[in-house]
């Protein structure tokens, strides 16, 4: 009998331990294998640092197959996953499979695209096809230059069989993939501030340093990124660019592709097919992609030649994953840069308070762009319109309507911003006070008039619009408040000659819809844009001269301590759409709170002042970033089950160590979601290591309690939570 080795294997299962299997020879770390797990066959990943189990060897199952079409997964990826799993208190196996493209999570070998280029050999060149064979002549002529398989297929569908025959006869030779020489096109001369920022980061290339690029909207942050990227590419290194989902537009990708026409650019986001994502990932790992641009999941992409990491709009909430491994891509990007000893550049017009605090603590260096880059572009004037004693027409003040009419007469484009899609956020009975509550959530159902439905934006529940009050039978039920659809209708009624375009998740569900919207805006076919935050971010909508903000007061007095920070960032972004190119910009905010300090700071474009006062408040209250938090969440159909579990945890944990405070159990801010009641414990401390260490040590206790809890119970840990 041959000697067999015991190998440690990580699997995609919600268990903290790895598993052991037998094989007839050792395998390196990171090898993908196929194993049996219970009744299933699963993909596993070898890790030789896992200690062998206590059970007898004859109890172990064999590895069924080695999926070794690729080299083993890179050690650095495994290290990053181990770090993330440890930090976010998540099972390593699950973290690892989160980090991999879907195709590599499956117990099947993957197919690599063909990256060779093909060319006629001397023998092939000497043997032209017969003149009557037009297809062969076409391909023979084309192959006098080196060409990839895909390019050949574009020339003719039969290229594959011609290639196969040619390779067999020796008429065609296959050459390995070669990087093209770097080409940089259309770089702009930097202004003094941009140049200062660029050279600071450039001086740090080759070692770790973290920078905040605090640049107001339109200050030319992207241009600074592009010029740094050019320098990194010229040195033969790769760049990782992480951006929010909503900013990943064809326009941005185009801008990169036009600047670097000869560079491989891998775009990685959740909208790709499994095959596309795998190829992009492999291009990055195998060095064919010089630039990786992607959303949060791109932070796990292997880049052996990494030279620079950029996180654009670093304050954006979409960098935090809200289920499974609840990682923050910005924070992992900083870890990544540190581990690979390269600089990381975090860009934003409204940095997160976490990042501001890191600048204050001297961990990050701040670079400032406080001028708009475009000639003649300046920051917009912000007006606060007190609507307390005004009669509004479908939510619009007379002054606002007049201002819109004036822009229309001058043929300038305006934007009306309201962060609520649908017709109206709630339907109500004028008699008994009934409102359109969702049966499954602590939320109201939103009226979607054109679809003739009430819809819950949280759980997706839909129902027909009732014709009378379901409680008292009163036929007089009315929409309360405005959403984008209602504003669109009101504007059309008030300004019938205006060409109005609504942009929200309902109107942009397909890529084609987006493209056509973009097309219409840029060819001057729109007078008034009405939209949600989709409009606020990243997109350059050109010659906007007026921005009207409605319904923002709700964010001033929220139970979530981060609401003001988010509101300020959002309003700065949306205000930043005005006056970007020549035409002076005006912003009007309709409010009941014209003296609110947040609005006054916004009016002064005073981010620093606002951030300082917010930080002071957070310190006073002991909230992040002045303290660290971990949430232990539980949900079940009955609140009692969720609460009972958390009570049991609390009891088992006993008194927390000094410096750690535990709050709760308390209902989550959104207490009911999709038919489940949600409760949570908040664990808080100014000493992060102590907090994490304590919870890590207590994890087995919590897991044991969870196994005893109601079968309906779900629970999770959220380290550095962004949502309460
Ligand atoms: N040095 C420069 N000279 C002239 N124009 C520039 C310069 N840098 C940038 N621009 C132009 O200014 C505009 C804004 O630049 P860019 O998109 O880089 O800014 P940004 O700070 O990334 O913008 P935002 O974050 O607000 O979307 C663009 O039209 C860009 O072409
Ligand atoms: Zn709901």
From TrEMBL:
Domain Helicase ATP-binding: 202-369
InterPro entries: DEAD/DEAH_box_helicase_dom, Helicase_ATP-bd, Helicase_C-like, P-loop_NTPase, PriA, PriA_3primeBD, PriA_3primeBD_sf, PriA_C
Keyword annotations from UniProtKB, A to Z: ATP-binding, DNA replication, DNA-binding, Helicase, Hydrolase, Isomerase, Metal-binding, Nucleotide-binding, Primosome, Zinc
Cofactor(s) named in the record: Zn(2+)
Residues binding Zn(2+) 2, per UniProt: 438, 441, 456, 459
SUPFAM superfamilies per UniProt: P-loop containing nucleoside triphosphate hydrolases
Classification via Pfam families: DEAD (PF00270), Helicase_C (PF00271), PriA_3primeBD (PF17764), PriA_C (PF18074), Zn_ribbon_PriA (PF18319)
GO molecular function, one term: hydrolase activity
Chain positions recorded as Zn(2+) 1 binding sites: 429, 432, 469, 472
Enzyme class at the top of the EC tree: isomerase
Family membership noted in the UniProt record: Belongs to the helicase family. PriA subfamily.
Biological function: Initiates the restart of stalled replication forks, which reloads the replicative helicase on sites other than the origin of replication. Recognizes and binds to abandoned replication forks and remodels them to uncover a helicase loading site. Promotes assembly of the primosome at these replication forks.
Subunit field text: Component of the replication restart primosome.
Protein name from the UniProt record: Replication restart protein PriA
Lineage: Bacteria, Pseudomonadati, Pseudomonadota, Betaproteobacteria, Neisseriales
């Amino acid at each position: 009998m041959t000697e067999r080795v015991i190998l440690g294997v990580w699997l995609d299962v919600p268990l903290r331990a790895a598993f052991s299997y037998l094989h007839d020879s050792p395998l390196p770390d990171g090898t993908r294998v196929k194993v049996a797990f219970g009744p299933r066959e699963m993909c596993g990943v070898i890790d030789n640092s896992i200690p062998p189990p206590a059970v007898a060897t004859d109890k172990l199952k064999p590895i069924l197959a080695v999926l070794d079409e690729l080299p083993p997964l890179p050690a650095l990826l495994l290290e990053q996953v181990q770090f993330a799993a440890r930090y976010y208190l998540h099972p390593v196996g699950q973290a690892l499979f989160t980090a991999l493209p879907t195709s590599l999570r499956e117990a099947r070998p993957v197919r690599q695209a063909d990256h060779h280029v093909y060319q006629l050999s001397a023998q092939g060149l000497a043997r032209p096809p017969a003149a009557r064979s037009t297809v062969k002549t076409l391909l023979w002529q084309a192959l006098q230059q080196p060409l990839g398989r895909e390019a050949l297929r574009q020339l003719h569908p039969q290229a594959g069989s011609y290639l196969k025959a040619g390779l067999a006869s020796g008429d065609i030779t296959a050459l390995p993939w070669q990087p093209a020489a770097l080409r940089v096109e259309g770089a702009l001369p930097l202004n003094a501030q941009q140049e200062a920022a660029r050279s600071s980061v450039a001086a740090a290339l080759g070692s770790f340093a973290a920078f905040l690029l605090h640049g107001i909207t339109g200050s030319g942050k992207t241009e600074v990124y592009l010029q740094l990227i050019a320098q990194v590419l010229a040195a033969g290194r790769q760049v990782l660019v992480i951006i929010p989902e909503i900013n990943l537009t064809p326009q941005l990708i185009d801008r990169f592709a036009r600047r670097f026409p000869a560079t491989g650019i891998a775009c990685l986001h959740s909208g790709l097919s499994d095959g596309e994502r795998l190829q992009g990932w492999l291009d990055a790992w195998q060095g064919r992609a010089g630039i990786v641009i992607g959303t949060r999941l791109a932070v796990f992409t292997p880049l052996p030649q990494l030279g620079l990491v950029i996180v654009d709009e670093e304050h954006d909430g979409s960098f935090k994953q809200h289920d499974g491994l609840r990682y923050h891509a910005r924070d992992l990007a900083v870890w990544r840069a540190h581990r690979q000893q390269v600089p990381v550049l975090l860009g934003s017009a409204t940095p997160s308070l976490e990042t501001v605090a890191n600048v204050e603590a001297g961990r990050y260096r701040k670079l400032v762009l406080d001028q708009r880059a475009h000639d003649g572009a300046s920051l917009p004037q912000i007006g606060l319109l007190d609507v307390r004693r005004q009669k509004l027409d479908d939510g619009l003040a007379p002054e606002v309507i007049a201002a819109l009419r004036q822009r229309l007469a001058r043929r300038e484009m305006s934007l009306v911003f309201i962060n609520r899609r649908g017709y109206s956020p709630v339907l109500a009975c004028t008699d008994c006070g009934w409102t359109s509550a969702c049966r499954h959530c602590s939320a109201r159902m939103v009226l979607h008039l054109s679809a003739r439905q009430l819809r819950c934006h949280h759980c997706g529940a839909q129902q027909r619009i009732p014709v009378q009050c379901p409680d008292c039978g009163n036929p007089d039920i009315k929409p309360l408040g405005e959403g984008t659809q209602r504003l669109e209708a009101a504007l059309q009624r008030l300004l019938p000659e205006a060409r109005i375009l609504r942009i929200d998740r309902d109107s942009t569900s397909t890529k084609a819809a987006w493209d056509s919207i973009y097309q219409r805006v840029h060819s001057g076919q729109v007078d008034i844009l009405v939209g949600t935050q989709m409009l606020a971010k990243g997109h350059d909508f050109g010659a906007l001269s007026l921005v009207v903000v409605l319904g923002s007061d709700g964010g001033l007095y929220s139970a979530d301590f981060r609401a003001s920070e988010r509101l300020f960032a959002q309003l700065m972004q949306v205000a930043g759409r005005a006056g970007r190119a020549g035409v002076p910009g005006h912003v009007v905010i309709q409010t009941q709170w014209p003296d609110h300090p947040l609005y006054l700071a916004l009016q002064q474009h005073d981010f620093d002042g606002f951030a300082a006062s917010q930080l002071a408040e957070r310190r006073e209250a002991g909230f992040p970033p002045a303290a660290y938090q971990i949430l232990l969440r539980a949900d079940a159909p009955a609140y009692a089950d969720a609460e009972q579990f958390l009570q049991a945890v609390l009891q088992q944990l006993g008194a927390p160590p000094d410096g750690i405070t535990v709050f709760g159990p308390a209902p989550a801010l959104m207490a009911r979601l999709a038919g489940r009641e949600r409760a949570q414990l908040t664990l808080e401390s100014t000493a992060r290591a102590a907090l994490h260490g304590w919870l890590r040590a207590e994890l087995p206790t919590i897991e044991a309690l969870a196994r005893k809890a109601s079968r309906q119970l779900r629970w999770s840990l959220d380290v550095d939570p962004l949502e309460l």
